[in-house]
Each structure stands twice: as C-alpha cells, then as structure tokens.
Specification:
single chain, 171 residues, mainly alpha, 2 domains, 4-stranded mixed β-sheet, 43% helix
Length: 171
C-alpha cells in the first residue's frame, strides 16, 4: 500500500490478494483504488464475485481541488440536510450581536471556500451521533477556533469565550 499526492490509498495486486487470503469479504473490496490495474478477466476465472475496483490511472491527473469536489459529491447526506439553509440555521442559533458578527464573519469564510456542503454534512453527522448516543471528543486542533462548528455541536470549545481566532482554522 502507498498513497498518492492527495492522500488516496493505492493498492496493488499483492495487497488485494493478501486481503482475500486473510478472509476479507470480496464485497468489502469494492471501491479500492488499484495501481497498476488488476487483470479482472483472470480474477473472474478464479473468483465467483469480482469487486468493482477503481483504476488509479483514471484518477492520477486529478488535482487536489477536483479530488475534494468529487469526494464531497459522494457523501450520503439525506435530502433534508442537503436542502438546509445552513447559514440561516446557524444565524438563528445566535443570541447576541457579538455572536451574530462572529458567525457572519465565519460564514463568509466558509462560503469563500465553498464549504457549506461540509457544514450541512457535519450538522447531519452530529445529529446522527446524538440520536444514536455516540460519544465524541470535546474538540481538537484548530477546528476549535470555529464558533460555527461550536454552534453545530462538532466540538464543545466556545471559541468566543476563549477569544480564539477563526483564522487559525480557516487559513
């Protein structure tokens, strides 16, 4: 196994054979990115089920921006969250003019970076974790500088209280 310029994990034929020999269900191998391309005709003669691999040569010229966009389009976010006006939702959570100002500033930064889909997905993820009583961390790294993420429940660090600069997160 190795990774490419955008951090995708690449598997070769030896990696795939090793996973099969260790008992990995073939259906779990769907979507693996393989390099070089695995001879599927030979695999079909040996296996009853041939996983749907992704040929890395088709992705190799993809830029980091194209990779991010493709990945974001593959999130399985329910329609109700995809249609959510995330800016209005977060603004409605503000109680003071200072909070409104901070949230407005951060939302502009998120919008400039085309990250509203990410915010919608994080809202969905947090709701699912709460509904299923999943415990997640208090907060970690530079993401705690975002008051918007605090309001969404991604972390529990009130960046306004601690006077954390959102610039530390959205550089």
């Amino acid at each position: 196994m190795k990774s490419d310029h955008v951090g995708r994990i690449l598997f070769d034929e030896e990696d795939v054979v090793d996973m099969v020999m260790r008992g990995q269900p073939l259906a779990d191998l769907n979507g693996l990115i393989v390099q070089p391309a695995i001879d599927l005709e030979t695999a079909a003669l040996i296996l009853d089920y041939v996983p749907k691999f992704i040929n890395y040569d088709e992705l190799a010229a993809e830029s980091l921006e194209e990779f991010d966009h493709r990945c974001q389009n593959n999130w399985h976010t329910p329609d109700e969250y995809q249609q959510l006006d995330i800016a209005a939702h977060v603004i409605a959570m503000c109680d003071t003019p200072q909070e409104l100002q901070r949230v407005g500033h951060e939302l502009l930064l998120y919008q400039e970076r085309d990250l509203f889909d990410l915010l919608r997905y994080l809202k969905y993820l947090v709701d699912v974790m709460r509904d299923n009583r999943v415990i997640w961390g208090v907060g970690r790294g530079s993401s705690t500088a975002s008051y918007v993420l605090y309001l969404l429940g991604v972390h529990q660090i009130d960046s306004m209280y601690y006077d954390l600069d959102v610039g530390e997160f959205l550089r």
